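Our preliminary data section would be incomplete without showing what the modeling component actually yields. Below, a chain of 212 amino acids is followed by its predicted structure, encoded as tokens that our downstream tools consume directly.
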Amino acid sequence: MTKAAVPFLIVLGVLVGLSTHTVVNCGDEDEPDICSAVIGFSPFRGPLIAFAYEGRGRIALRHGDWQRAIADFNEAIHLNPNRASLYRDRARAHRRNGEIELAIDDYDQAIAHDPRLATPYHERGLALAASGDLDRAILSYNTAIRLDPSDAQARLDRGLALLARGQADDARADFEAVLTLPAGKDGRQHEAARAKLAELSSEESAPVSMPR
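Predicted structure:
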């Protein structure tokens, strides 16, 4: 698709009554030019344009362009400050850009706007663990697991945090619980849990040297 054709398609979408669909879903494909055309198309001024910024931000996030993603999510939040997903996605961009404290603040905002979703609690736990705050990370994982008990990755991550805090028995319980949950497409969580359980067993069976 040529850049020249994109504005024409947007206008055509308006004419046939598909403008809202085009705006809301422009980030579903890796076509940032479509989102940019929507952003530049004056009839869409107002809160609806936030969807186009969000879509372009999600494309940038998928491609590792953290700064572009943050800039677009900033605009989307400015236009529509009440959507929890915008804060969650900007938090992801901040976290991957190494801006851990900003990520934690955005996860807090996402949770404040919609406390029923497990994902922001889980990902906030990752950010807190990266900052060294294992106590708060574990509390955040606890809530994520309560909201979604079938999330093997959250259970694995809590086990890693517990292990880092020296709670080997609690960590073992989480790693064993991971093996009872669905393995997912690649089974990565099961593999990691087995590896950690093997490490714990190896440490327990290692001979203890007695002082002379």
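The chain has a mean pLDDT of 86. The chain has twelve helices and no strands. Preliminary results of this kind motivate Aim 1 of the renewal.
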